[in-house]
């Protein structure tokens, strides 16, 4: 990643502010924010390009030996971007060792693989394939940065579970038992001597 003359000026100013905090102008703050956004955009674009290259590398490797020329070019390109060869790459290069370019890449990948093994044995982290950088806090330490633009926000209280009403409320009178349990309606008793039908004579 290369910086222009103006970007280097802003970068030097940001480093000076980080080492020796002092009041800064709004213009300096905006310049630093723009530089941070440009760096993030370039990093994201580089990660997307590497992802496309790795996907092509897998496709070319799966179609070997017919795609040997394209596979070797792609492998050399992704190695330059920080890619670490995996066992599939080593096996493919061994199968293509009759090709001088493949033999040279095999030697290079063996050196990288040995370095990774030594790093693991020594307990050091092995470099991984660079990916899209996680979102980060941007220049909040610079006086007058974005932290100063946003008012302090208090965390919203978590909603509490609703508790049942235990005490009577003055605007809600306690109902009487007669209102809650209305009296049952009395049904009319059946007649003592039901009328009998007279037989037609």
Question: What descriptors fit this protein?
Answer:
single chain; 201 residues; mainly alpha; elongated
Break the fold down into its secondary structure elements and pairings:
Elements: H1 5-19, H2 26-62, H3 68-80, H4 87-95, H5 100-121, H6 146-149, H7 177-180
Strand content: under 5%
Low-confidence residue ranges = 129-151
The shape is elongated
Rg value: 40 Å
Largest sheet: none
Number of helices, where a helix is a run of at least 4 consecutive DSSP H or I residues: 7
Question: Would you count the extended β strands for me?
Answer: 0
User: What gap, in angstroms, lies between the N and C termini?
Assistant: 124 Å
Which structural class do you get from the secondary structure elements?
mainly alpha
Arithmetic mean of pLDDT: 75
Helical coverage, percent range: 40-55%
Notes on the structure:
With 201 residues, the chain is mainly alpha-helical. The protein has a domain at 5-121. It has 7 helices and no strands. The chain has helices at residues 5-19, 26-62, 68-80, 87-95, 100-121, 146-149, 177-180. Helix 2 (26-62) runs antiparallel to helix 3. The radius of gyration is 40 Å and the shape is elongated. It starts with a helix and ends in a 21-residue tail after the last helix. Mean pLDDT is 75; it is low at 129-151.
């Amino acid at each position: 990643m290369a910086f222009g003359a103006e970007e280097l000026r802003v970068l030097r100013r940001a480093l000076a502010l980080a080492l020796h905090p002092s009041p800064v102008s709004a213009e300096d703050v905006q310049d630093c924010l723009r530089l941070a956004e440009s760096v993030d955009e370039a990093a994201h674009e580089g990660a997307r390009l590497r992802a496309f290259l790795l996907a092509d590398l897998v496709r070319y490797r799966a179609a070997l030996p017919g795609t040997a020329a394209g596979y070797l070019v792609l492998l050399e390109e992704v190695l330059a971007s920080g890619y670490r060869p995996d066992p599939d790459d080593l096996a493919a290069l061994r199968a293509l060792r009759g090709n001088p370019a493949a033999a040279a890449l095999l030697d290079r990948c063996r050196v990288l693989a040995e370095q990774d093994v030594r790093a693991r044995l020594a307990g050091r982290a092995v470099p991984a394939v660079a990916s899209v950088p996680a979102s980060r806090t941007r220049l909040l330490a610079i006086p007058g940065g974005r932290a100063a633009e946003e008012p302090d926000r208090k965390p919203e209280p978590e909603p509490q579970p609703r508790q049942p009403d235990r005490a009577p409320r003055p605007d809600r009178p306690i109902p009487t038992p007669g209102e809650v349990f209305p009296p049952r309606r009395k049904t009319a008793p059946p007649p003592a001597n039901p009328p009998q039908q007279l037989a037609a004579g």
